[in-house]
Specification:
Largest sheet: none
Number of helices: 4
Number of strands: 0
Helix content: 55-70%
Order of helices and strands: HHHH
Radius of gyration: 29 Å
Shape: flat
């Protein structure tokens, strides 16, 4: 845990010290971003690799996928899909989210315009008169 007595407030540093610290932080941030980008690119490349030598085959049904040469990503997707079909809810969420069917976290609200609200009111009044 940091000892508050050892901390030096940023205002106590000279502009050149602050500039030097910012430069160090920027370099460290760049290094970390490069590492993360390389990891992301490596994983993407590995996911596209076939499991065995030769061309990647496609199948028309899930039964047709068994024993076929597929990419790592396809093998992962197939394994998760099989788990989901066996009742694994985490696997089902993975399949749903990865396939682009994730429910929206945002709710959009729109208020009717004054004219449409008045028209709706007139329609409601008319329906009440006719039906009641």
């Amino acid at each position: 845990m940091a000892n508050p007595e050892n901390l030096v407030p940023n205002e106590a540093r000279t502009p050149s010290q602050r500039r030097e610290n910012a430069r160090k932080a920027g370099r460290a941030s760049g290094r970390k971003r490069r590492e993360m980008r390389e990891m992301r690119e490596t994983l993407r490349a590995m996911l596209d690799m076939p499991l065995r030598p030769g061309g990647v085959t496609t199948a028309q049904t899930m039964d047709g996928m068994e024993g076929k040469n597929m990419t790592v990503a396809q093998a992962v997707a197939l394994a998760q899909l099989r788990k989901a079909m066996d009742g694994d809810t985490r696997a089902a969420e993975f399949v749903r989210d990865t396939s682009g069917q994730r429910p929206s976290d945002r709710v959009e609200l729109s208020a009717p315009s004054r004219e449409s609200a008045e028209e709706f009111g007139r329609m409601l009044d008319e329906a009440m008169r006719d039906g009641g």
